[in-house]
Amino acid sequence: MQLPSGLFAYELARGSAEPEGRSLRYTLMTEIGLRRASAAGLEHPFDLDRIRAASLQELSSPELRPGDFGLHLWADSLVGGERAAELEPRLADALDQSGLGQREGMEVAWIVQGLALSGRRGALLEEALETLLGANAAASGLLHHFGPGNRRRRFPNFATQIYGVLALTTAARLGLDDRALPAARRLADKLIELQLPDGGWPWLFDADRGTVVERYEVYSVHQHGMAPMALLELAGVSGQERYVQAASRGVDWLHGRNDLGIEFADERERLIYRSIRRCRPWDRVAIAANLAGSTVAGRPLLGGPHRLELHAVGRPYELGWLFEAWAGRESLYAA
Asked: What is the pTM for the complete model shown?
């Protein structure tokens, strides 16, 4: 999935010889994971300096959102923070067009993560961290998807939640705010409460009620990458084994313990398939009905594993986050 430019593609479909598109965001995530792999002593054929140089050549690309500069700062911190003084103003300029309140929760989390790891401890980091701890924190323990005034605010996805756990845990580990660790634990505990019986992590939530709105798509990257990278970090900071157990249950979902009973890691295709989703256009109908039901009646209208299919593509960041989660921590897996 790496392109001749050194960047990474958007995705590769099962049976296809050529990947589709390109993604600067996925390139940054993949680089972060590969650097974790290298630090853990895993051999791989990638030239990390070439990947970094290719990403830096695209700093003026309109493809980059504010959160992507948080990822840039995160990646830069892994090579000594050489470009942090340039990247932070670019982040601030990107936010001038919208502000933190209008960014998805996952982007706010990337901004906290990037600034914290880079050592840029100024007003912007304080504002972003306060957004996670204050304005976006719901009484249920979950995070809102946006700041006040956005109609999607009440219905966040799993990405907003789990990147929030990671960013708050990083803030706690670095001693940035005494509220960060209790908030990370409260959020993670709520997610574990809502984890599906098969270990799957559901997709959409009602932050006000602290409930699941729609479980699909259930994404493999959440199972083996994003949830473990946050929960294992939290386990290390908090000393709580239950976070390791929850991360391991999620990994088991990949290996046949899922609604379709299939193995997601296809060695022949050299892919980890992306998700289990509702067949189209049923997926959009289910989301609309469940959002409406949650808003009006306080519960989703269409639940259960109906009309499901495998989304048989892979994306490069999925493998990057797999490394970020487990490289050097393989022994933590609780079979």
From this structure: 0.96
